[in-house]
Design goal:
Number of helices: 14
Shape: globular
Number of strands: 17
Strand content: 15-25%
Structural class: alpha/beta
Radius of gyration: 22 Å
Distance between the termini: 50 Å
Largest sheet: 7 strands, mixed
Helix content: 25-40%
Length: 398
């Protein structure tokens, strides 16, 4: 298949130089997606959008998604007492399209808020950061790594859209009721592979003891008991320890404000349902999806659904209060998407444009697509009056 030869060789060398001749699936996935030279997100391989892309996001459907998020951010600023500055931290900004929609709308509709806004982008990928800087050159934006933000310094909101699903996950299976971790090894298990050398590298899975006690502790966190009477032998799924580490850093950086996480996923009871016996791992390549992460290496996206119960429970341990959880369709309707749909009937535009926009708006709220995404809001440092006020996106749409 269409794998990146240099990346395959780098992964094989990582495996070969490991004393156990294997690496965790999380380490494999991290290299496939984020290797500094050859990873999917680190190069110009990543494609987002409808034409020739591997996948599309809500911001690919036009400016409405970003504009409605801007409405929510404005209300957050008001609830917090209109602080100066209000830091809006976007984590994983793709091509910068969502940021441009948010900033253009705030500049036009909420100029007082726009004036005091500090927009920060957290981006690991050098190529994506370059795209963002080109697209957003008319705005004042600071780019940095999450670890560079001073603890307890942010008053505002950390937010992400389809970020957590791309964090490297550990994979596990059950054998006789026991937790076993899935590791990755290679057919090239004797001598290191030389970069540039022609080689037919194949990766395969082997089972072993869990690489860290955090894997078993995870199920205590989400209150799931992997009993042999409930889960069959061969049951397989994922654990996203990276998401917990990420949320802990975010909570530590936030002094006062919100964390808004939008992604596809489930509560733990659905995520680890005994009938979901093969987990949620998916690969995306040219708008097709499959479940084989060992082909198209470095050329395809790899994701796993988000466990929102884990984010909520771990957030509480890190000092984040749960404000609410809803689905994207309901969230956007509460913020005014329904009014935008109704207004289409009165716009003096060509019918084809009206129909295209109507279709885009419907996709944002489709219960079988983007509309089913989860929206989790957490807070920290709010006074009693601010904590009492309900966010517009979490109200029941009229």
């Amino acid at each position: 298949m269409d794998s990146h030869p240099a990346l395959c060789e780098a992964i094989a060398n990582r495996i070969i130089t490991n004393p156990q001749k294997r690496i965790t699936f999380a380490e494999y996935m991290d290299m496939v997606l984020y290797h500094p030279e050859y990873g999917y997100y680190a190069s110009d391989t990543v494609k987002i959008g409808f034409k020739g892309g591997d996948f599309f996001t809500s911001s690919s459907l036009g400016s409405d998604f970003g504009e409605l998020l801007a409405v929510q951010f404005f209300q957050m600023w008001q609830i917090l007492g209109q602080p100066t500055p209000f830091s809006l931290v976007e984590m994983g900004a793709g091509f910068g399209i969502l940021a441009s929609h948010i900033l253009n709308y705030l500049k036009l509709q909420y100029p007082d808020f726009f004036t005091v806004l500090e927009y920060i982008i957290i981006e690991k990928s050098p190529s994506l950061r370059q795209e963002q800087q080109q697209r957003l050159q008319d705005f004042s934006i600071r780019w940095c790594n999450l670890e560079e933000i001073v603890p307890n310094s942010i008053i505002g909101c950390f937010f992400s859209n389809e970020l957590v699903d791309a964090f490297p996950v550990h994979q596990f299976t059950l054998e006789a009721g026991e937790l076993r971790e899935i590791y990755v090894t290679t057919s090239q298990n004797l001598t290191p592979v030389l970069l540039g050398e022609k080689s037919n590298i194949e990766f395969m899975e082997v089972l072993g003891e869990p690489s860290t006690p955090q894997l078993a502790a995870y199920f205590d966190l989400v209150k799931i008991e992997l009993s042999q009477s409930t889960y069959a032998d061969g049951y397989r799924s994922e654990i996203n320890l990276a998401a917990l580490n990420w949320l802990g850093i975010v909570a530590d950086c936030l002094q006062r404000g919100y964390v808004l996480t939008i992604d596809y996923g489930y509560p733990s009871s659905r995520y680890y349902h005994p009938r979901r016996s093969q987990g949620t791992l998916q690969c995306y390549y040219q708008h097709r999806h499959h479940d084989n992460p060992y082909i198209n290496i470095g050329r395809q996206d790899i994701t796993a659904h988000v466990d929102f119960t884990a984010l909520e429970s771990w957030g509480k341990k890190c000092g984040l209060n749960s404000v609410g959880w809803t689905q994207q369709g309901l969230f956007l309707m509460a913020l005014g998407l329904g009014e935008r749909l109704a207004a289409l009937s009165f716009q003096n535009q060509p019918l084809s444009q009206v129909l295209n926009r109507r279709e885009a708006l419907h996709q944002l709220i489709s219960p079988t697509g983007l509309g089913s995404f989860g929206v989790l809001v957490q807070s920290k440092g709010l006074n009693a009056e601010a904590a009492w006020q309900c966010l517009k996106g979490l109200t029941t749409p009229g």
